[in-house]
Amino acid sequence: MTDLLIRNLRPMGAATTDMLIREGRIVKMMPGIDAPDAAIEDAKGAIAIPALVEAHTHLDKTLMGMGWYENAIGADLRGMIDNERAERRRLNHDPHRQSMRHALALAGNGVTHIRSHVDVDTDNGLAAMKGVLKTRDALRDVVEIEIVAFPQSGLMIRPGTAELLDEALAMGADLVGGLDPCGIDHDPKGHLDTIFGLAEKHGKGIDIHLHEARQLGAFSMELILERTRALGMKGKVAISHAFCLGMEDWNRTQALLEALADQDVAILTTGAPSIEVPAVKRVLGAGIRMGAGCDGVLDTWNPWNRPDMLDRVRIVAQKNNMRSDVDLALALEVCSTGGAAVMGVTGHGVALGSNADLAFVNGETLAEAVAVGGPVALTVKAGRITGRAGQPLMEAP
Ligand SMILES: [Zn+2]
Q1: What is the mean pLDDT of the chain?
Q2: Containing H/E element for 191?
Q3: How many angstroms does the Cα of residue 169 sit away from the middle of ligand 1?
Q4: How far away, in angstroms, is 329 Cα from ligand 1 center?
Q5: Near ion ligand 1, which residues have CB within 5 Å?
Q6: Which fold has domain 4-50+349-392?
Q7: Residue 116 — left, alpha, or beta (φ > 0 → left; ψ -120 to 50 → alpha)?
Q8: Of 146, 160, 323, 332, which sits 20 to 30 A from 279 (CA to CA)?
C-alpha cells in the first residue's frame, strides 16, 4: 500500500504540520516532510482529530432513501417494537442495502468504527443479521463494524428467540444484546441468565439496552453486575442508555457507578433529549469507559436522528450543559476515543504510532469545529481516504 502524506493539518487544533502514514499507522508528524513516493493530500489547515466512533446504532433499521415514513405510532415502546416488525415486511425492507446506506453515510463523515445492534426475532428470523454481516464484509476496508445480536422484540416473551441468538452468534455476531429485562420481558432472571449463558457459551461480550428508569433500572443494573462478577466477565459488558443513572437519588447512583467501575462495565449514551441520561462527567469521573451513538436513524421509531457523529457531539454536550472549550473537547472525546475504548480498539488517536483512523474538521479552533463545524472535510481509515466533504467515496446501493 502506498504511503499517504497529509500536508497542512493541525493535530487537535495545534500548529500546522505534515503527517506521514505508512501501513495504516502515523509514522511521522513534523512540518516539511519529504516523501517522494507517497500519495499527497493537502488538508488546507483542517484540524485532525481521532476518527469518530458510532458506538450505538441500528444499521438494520434505517429507511434512508426509501421516502418519508409517516409515523403513526408515537412514543410507546411496545407499540414501536411491534410496529417495526410488521413494517419491515410491508415496506419490503432490505437489511443489506439499508445498512450499506447507513454505514457509508457514517463512514463518509468521519466514522471508522461502528457498533450496531441487529434485530433477531421469531418473525423476521436472522434476515437482518445476514444483511448486516454482508455489509460488514463489503465495507471491511472502509469502516469496522461490530455486531450485537439484539432481541429487540423480547426474549422470554417470545420463545425461540434464544435459539436464534445462539445461531446469530455462531454466524459471526460479536456480542450478545439484551433489552429491559423487567420492562419488556417481565422476567429479569430468565432474561439475564439466558444472555449471560449465551455470552459464556460463545466467549463473547454483552451490550444490553437498559431503558428502565430510576429504581427499576437500578434493580436490573444490579442483576447485570451480579452476573458480571459471578461469571468473571469484568471488562466484557456494556450497558446502553442506562437512563437509571440519571435519577435524582445521588447515593443510589453513586453506588451503581462504583460497582460499574469495579467490574469495568462500559456505558453508552445517546444524550437523548427526552429523558434523564447518565451525566458524562460523573460517569467518566468514576473511571468508567463511556462512548456515544446516534441510535436508529430515519426509521420507524424516530424521524430525528441523522448519521452524523459530529452532530451527536453537540447533542451530548447540550444535554450535559457543556459550554466551555474544554468541555466541548471532552464531549468530542466521548464520541471518538471513548467509543473506541468501549469497542476495545487500541491506538486510536492523533499521535505517532497511532492508527491512521482520522477525521479532519474545519474550524479556527477545536471547540469551534465541534460547535459549528461539519461536514467532516476528510475521513481516513487505516491510511486510506474514505470520505470527502461529508460524503463517502464508495457509492451506496
Ligand atoms: Zn438502540
Answers
A1: 97
A2: helix 188-202
A3: 19
A4: 25
A5: 295
A6: Urease, subunit C; domain 1 (2.30.40)
A7: beta
A8: 146
